[in-house]
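Hello again,

I reread your note about wanting to compare the complex against the isolated chains. To keep things tidy I'm splitting this into two emails, and this first one only covers the full assembly. Below are the input lines as submitted, including protein chains and any nucleic acid or small-molecule components. They are followed by the predicted structure of everything together. The single-chain runs will come separately.
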Amino acid sequence: MLAALNRRFGYDERSAALLVFPVVAVLLVVAAFPILYSFWVSLHDIVLTRPLRRPFVGFDNYLRVFDDERFWVAVARTTVYTVVTVAVTTLLAVLVALLLNENFPGNRLLQALLLVPWATPSVVNGLMWKWIYDPTYGLLNAVLLKLGLIERYRVWLGDPDLTLLLIANAAIWKQMPLAALLIIVTMKAIPDDLYRAAKVDGAGVVQRFVHVTSPALRPGLMLVLVYETMISIRHFDLFLIMTQGGPGDASFTLSWLIYVETFRSLRFGTGAAMSYILATTTFVLSWAVIRFLGKRL
Amino acid sequence: MQATPRRPIAPRVLRGALLFCFSALFVLYVAGPVAWLVSSSLQSEAQITAVPPNWLPPLASLANFEAIFTAADRQVTYENRRQGDAATGGFLPSGAANLLPSLWNSLTVGIWVAVLNLLLSVTAAYAIAVIDFRGRRATLYTVLATRVVPDIALVVPLFLVIRNLGLINSLGALVVTYLAITVPFTIFILISYFEGIPRDLYRAARIDGCGHWGALRHVYLPLSLPALVAALTFAFLTSWNEFVFALVLTQNVQAQTLPIVISGFIMDFTTSFSFVNAAGVIAIIPPVLMAVVFQRYIVSGLTAGAVKG
Amino acid sequence: MARIICEQLTKRYGTTVAVDALDLTIAHGEFMVLLGPSGCGKTTTLNMIAGLEEISGGRLSFDETDVTFTPPHKREVAMVFQSYALYPNKTVRENIAFPLRLRGTPHAEIERAVEAAAAQLEIAHLLHRRPQELSGGQRQRVALGRAIVRQPSVFLMDEPLSNLDATLRLSMRSLIKRLHHGLRATFVYVTHDQAEAMTLADRIAVMRGGLIQQLDTPDAVYSHPANTFVASFLGSPPINLIEGAAESGGSFARGAFCVPMAVAVEAGRALTLGLRPEDVSAPGPGLTTIEARVELVSPLGSETHLEVLAPGDVPLTLRVPKEWRAQEGEVIAFGIDPARLHVFDRATEVRL
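Full-complex prediction:
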């Protein structure tokens, strides 16, 4: 009895409450309230052009979204984009981690450079690559022409088949460092003894990677995959800067759809519903990645 | 006694060559685009629009940067817009004067967010990592869960709340907003690092007479420097780079942050490329500098976390 | 001044009970050792006394004051850890001074106390160093310094010597014993090393599974173990335990192995017999003679350990003076005094 009271109001409990309160307060106001309010909005038919009429419509907005064919286009685009981004980012991250994990002169310098893309603001990232892709003066055109891979300058971002990949390229460039860092940190934790034992057993470089490094990387890779998926699926900044959903609907992702619906069509109700669908999908996907890939890798 | 056999030369040379090759590729990939950005910013409009492009600025000049820093003194009108680069007609966007003020805004907001973030996260992370209190798990999960919903979804409700409070265009509102989006990750980093500190040190401090504040001050903080630096850097960087919330919550030029102003330039078709690149370079310097200088601390700061998966 | 009274002290982790309704009263100035294998609850009990673990049930008092819910920094106990737990960012001097600083002790007094403690522990020359620069033994002395500088009435020690090498352990043991005599404080010492327990304790609480198996002086616990667990835990090499049964006539028998007992037991009762390795001598009057074949000879210099096979295929380990010459394969005869045998009920393991 007394023990239960102590648990509730004792020194530890009071201290913890005091220490945690500021964070909880800020999050409550800035995050929790908008999240809940946003959900409430998604259950009503709210259009800013007629702000006074906001009937409750239950899950109608959600159904309307699923009926909207733009939604399914966006799903397709987002899927392609996310899969490509996450896969290539992770692959590059592992390669970079392998390189930086080796001991050689200048290693430190390379590690210092690693974070440059991560530190670059997404706006500048978009600007930088847009300039490289520029149809008239861009570096990409110049290089490819010189290498003889194209015959004349192309409008890269205007090519619907390439748009998503080009944007993904910019995203991958910026995200790879953090992923590589997480993997490097995991690699450093692998005890040397395992490698020594493998060498004594006769394992070559590739075999050592397969049998020692890969299994030990699983938790790190898991973290990277989940984090990258969560981030990539909701990318917005690059799309705003580089293509605005175009050309046509080539880069029309879910984030862009939400933006258009909310800020251009001013249909807040359906916009909020879309957001919640995206949020739920992200959550489920992350859970699925952890569940299934966690066993196989 | 036998002489120790020398290791064969060939594999060593091969390894060296491979390392060099991959290192070169790595540097090219990571630093190349930025180098091109810098190079472009040092060229005049005429040089930059040359085909094929000049890899290195033929006559590196800081004219573009000068234009940025003096833009406030000039009033850009239709007539003198071309004065950016008289020779070939480099154009200054009419918003050029906003660049410097927005730089200060970003800097102010960034520093406030970094510092306040640390104050908030350190205490919460300590409590969650060290104290076994009721609702500990729930608090942690709730904090992390606030990041599941995409920012786009939060923008409108947040906008409405802030507008009703009359705080649109207030840098303070921006700071508080950024706090909310950076705190979950920094708490995560700090918790992981705190859990790596030997528990016996905490016990010794409590026995010696420290309450929780004392333990935090004498044990956890002094030993967490890398994690604190990583958290500071992350908070500042996120704040500096943030775009969506700033777009919606700041609408007049006095309050806007750097990314917003730059995005304005990019959208403006008449902007000269060299000028935009120069603006980009200015935007990129503080965060990149921070990241490079603190890189070692960031790596150690993240170490405890990733290892535990 | 510092009596520690544990009444029905309990610690639960979910459904697991780590410490089960412990009743223990430690007298003022006593050196109490909690002895047992890992997982027996001794460290948990110590942590509850320190306030580092929340008490799930029961009551803890220091003298008349109930401290069950008092947080650790208000309990005025000192503690020494197995890992030393020295603050790495402080010098030795700062480490030792820390508890006094926290209490707002005036500077001059702190200096005096630190110097005194350092002198007593012979680490005065290390005061300006950092813990990382010290050896294990030196670090432990600093930890002790940090503890004694407060002149506490209660001293808690959690396996403080386990991380030290063997020779260091012996010298530190005597240091701790001397400290106890000098400070006249109540010591509670946790260890799994029975030699430490025997040499240091005023009383030993042998623990297993969260319960006290026996609480008594070292001599009593050694000579009259309450059950087979206590018997086998104390003594090195461990006591020989032989399973068998009582026979009519007051003997213990296991196959061909038969010795008279000093205790009366009804015939047929299943028993476990305990024979300490050192409780054998040359055959003589009043002693039961056993002939056994020597399997292994381990000379230790000061004595010799013999592993022998007694009749009934009973393996025994014996400690004999080094003068006894025995060779592997040889058959030797030795005498056992029935009064020195320990008889336990086989099922309950309790002494009879």
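For quick reference: The mean pLDDT of chain A is 85.

B.
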